[in-house]
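Researcher: Please predict.
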Amino acid sequence: MVSRTGLALPVIAAAQLLIVMDGTIVTVGLPVIGAGLRIAESDLDWVLTAYALAFGGLLLAGGRAGDLFGRRRLFRAGLVVFLLASLLGGVAQTGGTLIAARVLQGVGGAIIAPAALSLLADTFPEGPRRNKALGVYGAMGGLGAVAGLLLGGALTEYLGWRWIMFINIPFTLLLLAGTVALVPGTRGRGGIDLPGAITATLALGSLVYAINRAGTDGLGDGLAWAFGAVGLVLAIAFTVIQRRVRTPLLPAGVLADRGRLGANLVMLLMGAGQLATFYFLTLYLQSIKHYPPMLTGLAYLPFAVGIGLGSGVAGPRLQARTSTRFTLVCGLGVAAAAMGWFSLLTPDQHALSTLLPAQLVAGTGLGIGFVAVTISGVRGVAARDSGIVSGLVNTSQQIGGALGLATLAGIAVTATAGQPTGTALPDALTSGYTTGLLGAGAFYLAAILAAVFLFRPEPVTSAALRSSVR
């Protein structure tokens, strides 16, 4: 008979897979969605960004709610919200309705994610067992993004893009049934900082819109500057609110630990590079190579294999034998090198020479990084703060993805427009995409610097070495 603990990990890991998968599952179907709902190409990235913003902006509030009202209860509530949002998105008749559904999905994800990671910490005591469980959880963060691309391509081609939304319904119902295996989780006292949650979400939304608009309309656009200013004012307001409220959304002590601060900064930069990578590769595959949705999804298989190798084999072994800092530097160095490899793409490039091997390398590097940063992000946290810390780790990834995509999409558009007169359209577009991919590599290099300066090398104990080879 399978123990309750044995059932809990698959449920928690599957929930992480679901919410990360939905961050990218619409990517391959974007051209079809845009044509079907008459969404302008310049606005298509909002189908991705709306989810990431709502998810990232409300994760801290979701983590705090789980600490106060019970993590299993909030986990179930988040699944219900996610289910209803998926149904709304599946029946959407306008781009606005679909984007609203994506926002609501992000709200559900913001409730599920911190509750799931906190329940994992409640279920597994700190040590080798928790590290292995966190390795599985971290792997879902990487694999989920690739699984979304694979599944999104297959569903778009064979069943239609609406099934990108509908597929979540049976998945969510199975997870709801599986919650009987979860422990209730610890609870605390206090309230939720709603002003802080609202201010943070609006600040991030304003900044992302400003970056997005500046990329498409130029740095001289007045509306871009106006939204940027509003975003900064709201960010300052959030800081003031956190200092004055009794139960702040982001307690001052949470980021007092240098390693935890580094973990969240590294996760933000990794998220920025990863989502942009998927976005540009999908555009290259469909706009330049004219791959149908199914083939586009299958083209990401090497990425999935790499994530599996990095998170399931190389990452845990490096983490057990060396320091978190060394593990991150290795993983992110490999990922950055892969972005340089992607820059060799041309309109007539054969997939086997650059695209597929570079994906395998990139996936391996990111898989290694996800394991190390997830373990570091929740290491040593008190039980009463595990929800908020778990939310912060996921917040960093989602907000990084939204900001990174907005920034690099604008840079890519500028690079394409800056090509010499007479350049063939496929060459101009490819130049923009490869510039964006190099930008993703720059984010990974910045993450390496953050790891070097903020992480301290931990001594490796003989017990850790023994546990790693079991």
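Model: Confidence is low (pLDDT under 50) at residues 459-470.
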